[in-house]
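Page 47, continued from p. 46.
Same chain as before, 135 aa.
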Amino acid sequence: MTVNHGGSTISVKGESRITPAGYILRKYKLDELPELWNVFKGDMSFVGPRPDMPEYSKKLVGEEKKILELRPGITGPATLKYANEEEFLTSVDDPQKYNDEVIWPDKVRINLDYCHNRSFFGDILVILKTIFGRG
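Result:
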């Protein structure tokens, strides 16, 4: 993305603030590679809730805050469901509003479910779906 773009915290496919190099990095998920270092340092996990922007994390209330107790992950169930989020948001009238009212609450629900039901074999399944297909 361009520096000091002044845009929103969500991205929509085809935005002018996404540079050509950034487009390629994001398309092939190469922008995620530096996060492997964070996994090896122990700051992140392969599977877990994706870290939110601080303004979203501050909106979590009650039991939802349990999500913050988990180590953030490179991938997770919500990541799989919304793998094409940027592309999808191009089809709605107000991407920011749709994200705030539909996508983000759904991600919170999915991440809370993951928090309560996570397992080693479930994480393996998420990793396999991430690598071989999001189906």
